[in-house]
Design brief:
heterodimer; A: 504 residues; mainly alpha; two-stranded antiparallel ribbon; 2 strands; globular; B: 113 residues; Helix Hairpins; 3 helices
Chain lengths: 504, 113
């Protein structure tokens, strides 16, 4: 079983370097390679989750055994949370890869696009499975450098400017992370996450660990675009080609931002009250300010991008609530509930936000614009896009029976049980504002009267673009089954257990 | 200790450059300064006064002080990553200059927010 783990990096990396070759030999086939590879990885990850559950599997790269209980070499570690993340990364990657095949026809240099796309997935898979801090940094850089290039792919004025802004802020974030990593190594003389956590648990919380944690929050907060660090996200995510926006918003900010934050703060550091309060505050700020900034936007993709900030705020707030309860030594059941709500919302968000960006891409593909003021009446002309986007909109604004309702409900229940009444109230209000802004999208884009100027030649997008949207819309509906006991134990709880159980 | 403080000051100089300069090329240089200060920091951590290169010498009988080799390996990797980011940044800067005919960050403001 453990020999399957390196495949998650090898397959996308191999495909990235195979594409130039296949492009020369069989020009019609290279577009389907990334999607095919990621489909294989989804199946492997699913199989591993079913058979392993929340068990932790370790693969030692190069077969280096620990010497005197000190691990040497790089370890790849997979547990419940990593496996769920792997399923999501490769699933959204597979669907966005399929969607790219017709969508990218109008661009030149398609082969470079698919190379960068595979490299980005390889980096994200690596971040999720690695058990070594420096290795995490390397994989993180692989995925963000390819995403910088993908944001600038259209190379028009806006895209270049967005990419430059993203690169400067992303560069500063990477350097903060590297700095924190250097001090961690200086303090503990090891880079293995498991080893560091053992060392840090023996010592009391010192000023140095607080210092390291602040730098990690700044670094990964910039990567995850939480509120004080959010300036690059709306530009970058709205300028990229739509399948890439779906990957960036759906997966990248989670895999290299929120996932790493959760992993480090729950599994590596001792939880302290000050840091938990900081994380909760950042989460609440992102949740509220993100949605307030979103409601005034008229560019479809910009609006969705601001909602990504707001929805990630829910996840970080839920994790922060769990951390506060744990650090105060409160009821562990409530902490588990809050964290499971947060993780569930993170998984749901990657599905419905991926779908929303694919919808925006279809609208742009069919009509040539994504300005809501110029659109209207698309529900008759683009039936598949309009129905799936209705599903995604209901899902993100928390209407039952879609998945977003259940995850938000769990977060709110946990906040009330933990006596965070103000946060619960804010979560409800933000959800209502989200509903309002998505009603605006539905009304102006799909339900309004047709604008006469743009009526010619609008027809439904090709089948390969419809299929990913239909699959994601069905997932929006069926992921709500994850709250049912029985299914919950197989899919959701392994992820939660891998974060909480190590603390006990 | 003075080494570390100077190293941190170098980091802050780079950060100051990134935050205050208006010219794109100067911002890129600022990022480079930050990165090299971190590389220096890594090397300083592994350095021991009077340490030798970390190749095990079995013939000598008394214990030898070795310099920690791991930070050096990490710095090599981080230099390569820095090369990739700088190259991409400069490529984007050239493209930006072709589109806007300026390096001034204040004049490159199509996007708001």
């Amino acid at each position: 079983m453990d020999s399957l783990i390196p495949l998650f990096v090898i397959v996308p990396l191999g495909i990235a370097f195979l594409i130039p070759l296949v492009w020369k030999l069989i020009p019609s086939a290279f577009k389907y390679l990334p999607a095919a590879g990621m489909l294989v990885l989804v199946v492997i990850a699913f199989f591993m989750l079913i058979t392993n559950g929340s068990e932790t599997v370790t693969y030692k790269v190069g077969g280096w055994e620990p010497v005197k209980n000190i691990p040497i070499g790089i370890h790849l570690v997979v547990d419940g949370l990593s496996m769920t993340m792997l399923i999501l990364i490769n699933l959204i990657g597979f669907l966005a890869g399929l969607y790219s095949v017709p969508y990218m026809k109008k661009f030149t240099g398609e082969n470079y696009y698919f190379v960068l796309f595979s490299l980005m997935v390889a980096g994200m898979n690596g971040v999720v499975i690695t058990g070594d801090l420096f290795n995490l940094f390397v994989f993180l850089e692989i995925s963000v450098i390819s995403s910088y290039a993908l944001v600038a792919f259209g190379s028009s004025k806006d895209e270049l400017e967005a990419s430059f802004k993203y690169q400067v802020l992303g560069g500063i974030a990477s350097l903060f992370i590297l700095f924190a990593l250097a001090i961690t190594y200086w303090y503990t003389s090891t880079l293995n996450i498991n080893d560091i956590s053992l060392l840090l648990k023996q010592a009391p919380v010192s000023k140095i660990t607080i210092f390291i944690q602040i730098f990690f929050i700044a670094g990964f907060g910039l990567k995850a675009a939480l509120i004080p660090f959010h300036a690059w996200l709306p530009d970058a995510h709205s300028s990229a080609p739509s399948p890439v926006s779906a990957m960036l918003s759906g997966i990248l900010i989670k895999a290299i931002g929120v996932y790493v934050l959760l992993r480090l703060f729950f599994n590596m550091f001792q939880i302290s009250l000050e840091i938990s309060v900081i994380i909760t505050t950042i989460g609440v700020l992102s949740m509220v300010i993100g949605v307030v900034l979103a409601i005034g936007q008229w560019d479809m993709k910009r609006l969705f991008a601001y909602h990504s900030i707001s929805q990630m705020g829910y996840v970080v707030m839920a994790a922060g609530i769990a951390m506060i309860i744990l650090s105060k030594g409160g009821d562990k059941g409530i902490a588990v509930l809050a964290l499971s709500g947060g993780l569930f919302h993170m998984f749901n968000h990657s599905v419905f936000k991926g779908l929303l960006f694919l919808n925006a891409g279809s609208v742009e593909y069919a009509t040539g614009t994504r300005n809501l003021k110029e659109l209207g009446g698309l529900s008759e002309l683009l039936p598949v896009t309009s129905v799936t986007s209705l599903g995604a909109s209901l899902s993100i604004s928390g209407i039952p029976p879609f998945n977003g309702f259940f995850s938000k409900l769990i977060i709110i229940i946990a906040a009330i049980q933990g006596r965070f009444y103000l946060l619960a109230l804010l979560a409800v209000i933000v959800s209502i504002i989200t509903l309002a802004s998505f009603m605006k999208v539905q009304r102006y884009a799909f339900l309004d009267k047709l604008k006469k100027t743009r009526i010619q030649n609008i027809k439904e997008v090709p089948f390969l673009m419809c299929l990913p949207m239909i699959v994601l819309a069905l997932l929006c509906l069926f992921m709500s089954l994850m709250v049912i006991p029985g299914i919950r134990e197989t899919f959701l709880m392994p992820a939660v257990n891998s974060l909480i159980s190590l603390i006990m | 200790m003075l080494n570390y403080i100077l190293c941190f000051i170098l980091f802050l100089i780079g950060l100051y450059g990134v935050l205050t300069r208006k010219n794109i090329i100067k911002i890129i240089i600022g990022l480079g300064i930050m990165e090299y200060s971190l590389n220096l920091f890594f090397i300083l951590m592994g350095y021991i006064e009077g340490g030798v290169i970390p190749i095990v010498d079995l013939s000598s009988s008394q214990p030898i002080k070795y310099v920690d080799p791991l930070p050096q390996a990490l710095v090599l990797t981080s230099i390569v990553i820095g090369l990739a980011t700088t190259a991409l940044l400069l490529a984007i800067a050239i493209k930006l200059y072709k589109k806007y005919k300026t390096f001034d960050i204040d004049k490159i403001n199509n996007l708001k927010g």
